[in-house]
Specification:
There is one protein chain. With about 240 residues, this protein is of the alpha+beta class. The protein folds into two domains: about 100 residues, Beta Barrel (Barwin-like endoglucanases), CATH 2.40.40; about 110 residues, no CATH class. The protein contains seven helices and ten strands. It has a six-stranded mixed β-sheet with strand order 2-5-1-6-3-4. It has a four-stranded antiparallel β-sheet with strand order 8-9-7-10. The longest helix has 22 residues. The radius of gyration is 20 Å and the shape is globular. The relative contact order is 0.15.
Length: about 240
Amino acid sequence: MKYKILILIILLTSCSAHTTKLENRSPFISKGFAYIYNDYDYENKTIKGRLDNSKLQVSHNKLRSNTLIKIINPRTNDSITIKNHKKINYPDFYKILITEQVANKLNIEKELPLVEILEIKKNKSFIAQKAKIYKEEKKISSNAPVTSVQISNISKNKNKKKKLKQEDFYILIGSFYSRETADFLKQRINKEIPNYDNNKLIIRKKSNKEINLISGPYKTINFMKNDYILLKNFGFEDLDIITNE
């Protein structure tokens, strides 16, 4: 009997530790393009689930249903906090699926639907951790080229509206401390992705401690998608996008 009680205590302790670990994980952060829902894409199975465009609804394919999500338009700072309606599979290039009502609420540019996604966790201050998480997400794993991506503005020009149609997009492949590491990854892509346009690969010094390997420029989302998929198939998990206005 004592043996069985001991086993039960170990199991309960193990479950408790696992739960604590899940609760203490960092909130989900992502920046990229939103997919604006339409029934045509659902009927043609581009999207594997249905939303109601007359309602404020969103779907994120990595977060559980009813998870609170804050969506921000980085250009206007308009935001909405909303529950994840349900998990729906949509094209991997996009970061979230939203209805037209949500797009209108956020004043999103339909042709360039840039958004920032923040998971809202109970009893946790997200904003205080935001800068730290961004910094950690830029680190490159020794076993993979890159694990996450972010969209950032690499220009100090504040006149957004006038240059919105002239902006260029880049895929941020990785951030490094040394140029040698960036060169190594560039050569690896050149060698192992033969159908990739190597002229698009650029090494850019952002600061004394940050060297970026980027791909671009791209004028439209469609051209960017092709290279994004090639890099994704190569082994990158989530590639961020930076804009140059």
